[in-house]
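Troubleshooting: if your tokenizer reports a length mismatch, compare your output against this known-good record of 480 residues.
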Amino acid sequence: MLISQDTASAARIGSAASGGESVGTTTGVRVGRWSVVLFALLALIGPTQTRSQDGGAAPLLDPANIESAFSHVVRTVSPGVVSIRVQRSALAPATAADAAGHSAATMVVVNGAGTIISDGGAILTNEHVIRSAQRIDVTFHDGVTQTARVTATDVRADLAILHTSRRDLPAVRFCDWAGVARGQWAIAIGNPFGLGGDGRSCVSIGVVANLGRRLPGLGEADDRLYHDMIQTTASVNPGNSGGPLFNLRGELIGVVTAMHTRSAADQGVGFAIPMSPQRLQRVEQLLRSETPAYGFLGLTTRDAAVDAGEAANGGGGALVETLEPGGPAEQAGLREGDRIVRMDDDEIRGAADLAVRIGEATIGSAVVLTVQRGRRLIETPVVVVRRDVERVESLRGGAIGWRGLRVAAARAVDAGGIVVIEVSPGSPAERVGLRVGDRIERVQGAVVEGVAAFREAVRQSEGAVELRLADRRRVRIDPP
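Known-good structure output:
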């Protein structure tokens, strides 16, 4: 579960004296907040009719009907929900570094959930749930547990497809996205804290609180873009990640992904990736085992501050922070500090807006960026290239990924060099035996003392690359 925390103090609404209830001003009857819930739900499930005093038909507020509506949905969709248990390697504390020259790694268990989306057994979940998994176990509604394999991933969209050996599984139905709106019921089914590990997934109920929510900063370290999320009041906890969010018709409207909380004590706010037409297109590509392509211009941006003088020139826009040396944006003449206000004929409202539009642009096409530089507006065409995680991580200057492994600067206790922090299953790095905690000292015989040196060394090598590790092993990693 991705968790965003805000340490600011939370203002609590309501008082213990009122008990969360309001008092009717005309009848003197105390009306509970659940009365509002009953009236709203009856509009959806259709009223049960009874006779009023004047002989006409009148709706009957029967709590049994409310319970039956939710129970029916849960019974119908539960066979299509699975619990996921992932084992992955992680670095142990620095004091656990051993004399062999690599940091000690430990196995951690991560709980998640997933949704069966085809009778061929395809299971949709979050990519961050199964990332770096050494083993994935899926438990079905009937309690049967099987080992799963990853068949497709989309890191940018944070989606993944799993398969087991089971077939003829009950697939859930996707929603008509045009009918999704604020205030609709939302049912989250998943595996919070591993409590659904026996196959009986846990249920929580709320509403769609909002649509199109941005979660800036939460996924940037892993190159994820959470820009159009569903916000829900359904209870979401660690272990719900990857699980479904349904409407009252039992249709899949989203994949539960993250929560925002002010502290560990409050209930937080849940977020789900919407199954909008754009996301469904990504899912269809993953079902065909095609890696979705995203556009890339070779720059990083942030939201531009808007003052009264800038507002007349196109609103907020995206302020260029860094440029990839020799990348498309730099070659087109963009500079740090430029404010991108339009892309082709569309206004750019901020950094996330630009990222989405670039990502959806056709690879190899030229887009026209309108840039404000000082008092001038400049139009410049930029060629869109395919987004590559290694280039993105290099541009950001943090931990980088290469041929299935991610490395970062080693801790001081490891006496310099770089350390492997992640190895992707089935990658060239895994095939040669690299593991989390290995410390790399040399690339092609040259000493590498940090991430920047490693980046430059591997960038210059297109074929097999030899790495020498601190424990004196030598491995040769072939291109993917």
